[in-house]
Amino acid sequence: MGILILVHELGHFLVAKVSGVKVLKFSLGFGPKVIGRQIGETEYMLSAFPLGGYVKMLGEEAGEELDEADKERAFNQQSVTKRILIVLAGPLFNVFLTYIIFTSVLSMGLPVNVPVLSNILPVIDEVQEGYPASEAGLKAGDVVVKIGNKRIDTWFDMVNIVVKNPGRKLDFVVKRDGKLLNLRIIPQSVDEVDPAGTKVIIGRIGVKKLGGGFFESIQSDSVLDAPVKGVVATYKMGFFVVDSIKMLITRQVSLKNISGPVTILQESGKAASAGLLTYFMFMALLSVNLGVLNLLPVPILDGGHIFMFLIEGIKGKPLSEKTIAITQKIGLALILLLMVFALYNDFVRIFSGNSTS
Fold first, then answer.
1. pLDDT tens digits, one per residue of 29-49
2. Which of 104, 107, 274, 294 has the fewest CB within 10 Å, making it most exposed?
3. What's the CA gap between 97 and 286, in Å, rounded?
4. Could you tell me which of 126, 131, 130 has the C-alpha nearest to residue 142?
């Protein structure tokens, strides 16, 4: 996370410097300063709370008094276009980091696998005749909503339950043509051999996913082709994040899937233990997430600032300080609420034993 925050704030910092804006502070973390050093006109700091960072520019705060000598270098005295570019640079640097990682991986002849959201959802594409699903009345196009008391958000959720319950009655709730139906399905017991060579019995109900798998594999033909394919992979991963947000908002995917810093720590540890490549690929996914999420038009996020600058450009004058203050408070409340909810989900996963594995 430190690397992702550094890259994000570096984007704001560099474009501000290039634009001639005076940067007063560059901090990794929020809250009280732990350590810092003044270099030139900027103080570089590490602060107490590591979940974020900031670049403080002259004239950024409402009502700030400015010396005449420095006035032309204040953020609020810059054109709307310059201010948008400075704010936009943070998220774009995060997306660019993802691009660098993907291009590096592709140049080594390795693939970048981008999730295909439509194939991850628990929608039944095909029902096989003679299997329990067909006998129970499950049909192609049905969406599995619940099995027992557990909400089903992905195909993997469903498979995980079915595989572990051979010969046991499972109560499915499925959505068909906008209506909820209750079906009882008993998974068929099937003998299989696991990767360790041990014979195991698993459950199977006879349903399939079509469409070429859960991931789209992007590969480059050469080192020269890697930068082009890196653009494709970054674009597709970015839109995977956008589609995921849409599905959270429309409740096609449960809000329980929102994760906080505890889950990120756990998954980062697993990625690191799996090897350097897995670690960097996880970093790439987090980085594009951070970039896209910051572009949402929510006050306090970069996207919220850009939205207000666009309104200013259309009106021909800045929004009032009172309006800005109110929107900032609303944005802060929303972000804090989201963080509390994400932490709640983290601890529910830990104490219920459902942390990702």
1. 888 899 999 999 999 999 988
2. 274
3. 10
4. 126
Written as six digits, the tokens of 172 are 């499915």
Residue 1 has pLDDT above 70, yes or no: yes
**Which pairs with CB-CB distance under 8 Å and at least 24 residues apart come from 269-276?**
none
17 contacts 11 by C-beta, under 8 angstroms: no
> At the top level of CATH, which class does the domain 120-208 belong to?
mainly beta
- Within the chain, residue ranges assigned H as helices are 2-18, 80-107, 117-120, 132-136, 155-163, 226-249, 261-273, 276-294, 302-315, 321-352
E-assigned strands of 76-187?
Answer: 112-115, 126-127, 143-147, 150-151, 170-176, 179-185
Catalytic residue, chosen from 9, 60, 135, 192, is: 9
pLDDT tens for each residue of 286-318: 899 899 989 988 888 899 999 999 999 998 888
Alpha-carbon gap, residue 5 to 261, rounded angstroms: 13
Of the pLDDT bands very low, low, confident and very high (cuts 50, 70, 90), residue 87 is very high
For the record, the structure tokens of 132 come out as 């329990």
Q: Provide the 10 A C-beta neighbour count for residue 356.
A: 9
| Side chain identity, residue 290 | L
Report residue 43 as tokens.
């103080």
144 DSSP β-pair partners: 174
> Which band of pLDDT confidence, cut at 50, 70 and 90, is reported for residue 354?
very low
Residue 267 falls in the annotated catalytic set: no
Query: How much is the CA Rg of the chain, to the nearest whole Å?
Result: 25
